[in-house]
Amino acid sequence: MRLLLHACCGPCSLYSTGQLLAEGVEPTLFFVNPNIHPYREYEARYESLRRLTAERGWPLLVEPVYDPAAFFNLINQHEQDRCRYCYQLRLAKTAARARELGFGHYSTTLLISPYQNRDLLLEIGRRVGREHGLVFYEADWRPGFQKSQAEAKMLGLYRQQYCGCLYSEMGRYYRPTAPEKPPKPEVPRP
Asked: What CATH superfamily classification does 2-173 receive?
């Protein structure tokens, strides 16, 4: 079986791709991540994945255009539900490419992360698959997350510290401070 695998980064691709190969599946990885912000972060994740796939001999396709505006336009006024829109965007692009290239199955390396909403990923993956005439491969790679991260560290792959979007970066690093108290008014002296 051939499968197009949405790849978010090198570390998440290690275990997932290894498991697919062990099961006799022929994955082609597809880097399509317009949610990743800023551009230097996008470059770091892409370069890590490119290096990994070159070393392992795994096929890699890359969406030729970095288009964060597509992500921001989609989540505008829906920031609290941004993951739903983000999953939808990336899985729809992956499914469309899979159909275009004649794949019958597709999946995502996001299924390895304990930080992602697995139930929502499965719901969207199945629906998008049906819309494109594909089967969404529903692996549970979460038990291999720590192993994948350790191997990525050993290989010197870039390991990101947040999901990818501006909002997840803010959630990781930004800690609002309490507003300053206004100064006490001076009492006029007689």
From this structure: HUPs (3.40.50.620)
